Amino acid sequence: MTVAITSAFDSGNIRVLRQEGAADFVLAINKDAGGEFFQWFHFRVSGARGLPLRLRIVGLNASAYPEGWPGYAARISSDRQQWVTAPTSFDRDREEGTLSIEVTPASDHLWCAYFAPYSMERHHDLVARTALASGVSSRVLGVSIEGQPIDCLEMGEGGAHIWIYGRQHPGETMAEWWMEGALEALTDPAFAASRILRSKARLHLVPNMNPDGSRRGYLRTNAAGANLNREWAAPTAERSPEVLAVRNAMDETGVMFALDVHGDEALPHNFIAGFEGIPSLSQRQIDGLERYKTELCRQSPEFQVKMGYPVAPRGRANLTMSTNQLAERFGCVAATLEMPFKDSADLPWPATGWSPERSKALARACLAALAATIDELS
Ligand code: ZN
Question: What CA–CA distance (Å, rounded) separates 321 from 260?
């Protein structure tokens, strides 16, 4: 049987450069539209049962985040349900950065990805299931460049508008796993924090802001090559209709609190980036953000505040990023949540690394923290 590799499916991305043995492949990652970014990979290896498979992805020193590779382990699955880490090493001096994955598959098909994938079919399952829950409405805010819906799920009877959105960067699939956890928690009456939030607020959740990039197997851009989290100051229908649709909907409701959900390639931690550099920064906003982060530390031992991005000086915020734009535009507390592609160094679990299950558990903690602090955020 011949060993074969394919990525011709939803969110697939790999290119076979050459084969050096029956089960020895040299691979490369295709770039996003725009030609700038690449890092996400997702492919299937068939016919390698019992063979010592050697997969080398080369040229990674030019990837979007070269620091994402040291200490990283690729995710593999035989059934596309359970994803575990594979023995992985990185050599920056070999073929301009080589990630080597060595595994002997126990089954005919092996799936390999940068992180557990979240398909558009699963997205539609999530939207359909959530929309059937009591008190939930689901609306389409607009469409992507390729005509896919920008879905928004809404619930709650309170006056404060909370916006939670994820996957502006499509390769950060942990963001939609997080959104799945959040939507399950918010429609679970047994989860007390959801009852508090739904009585005090109107919640708007956009589980996937970049369906085109998701389907195309991109790391960071939409079909037009736009990095959506650099489009919030002046989104356009031609280049970033996904952002325009969501920002217009936010302008209609106002925003009391916003959470933008991401993954970070390099840092092995969960952390929050704020909006400290915005021109109109108020003490109330700073206090609200600090209060939220402190509460989230209490709610989840997987969250921490020591490690994160450098804080922008006053007046130097990049207002094309959603968190800064929304904090400036609405005077609200806004936060960017980052989860790791690697493991969380604070409480490691090497068998899976950071995972769908841990992303979903963190979503519950984030909602519990929000319920505990909502009266102090407005
Ligand atoms: Zn991101």
Answer: 10
Residues with Cβ within 5 Å of ion ligand 1?
A: 169, 172, 262
Low-confidence ranges of the chain (pLDDT < 70): none
338 is catalytic: yes
Task: For residue 168, report the distance from its CA to the centre of ligand 1, in Å.
Answer: 7
- CA–CA dist 124, 114 (Å, integer): 22
- In angstroms, what is the span from residue 183 Cα to ligand 1's centroid? 20
Instruction: Tell me how far the alpha carbon of residue 157 lies from the centroid of ligand 1, in angstroms.
Output: 31
Q: Kindly report whether the global pTM for this prediction surpasses the value 0.85.
A: yes
Considering 154, 338, 357, 376, which one is annotated as catalytic? 338
Q: How wide is the angle at C-alpha 318 spanned by C-alphas 314 and 320, nearest 5°? A: 145
Strand partners, 18: 26
Q: How far is the CA of 262 from the centre of ligand 1 (A)?
A: 4
Beta-strand (E) ranges in the chain? 4-6, 15-21, 24-28, 42-46, 53-57, 75-77, 84-85, 88-91, 98-103, 109-113, 137-143, 149-155, 160-166, 201-206, 257-264, 271-273, 333-340
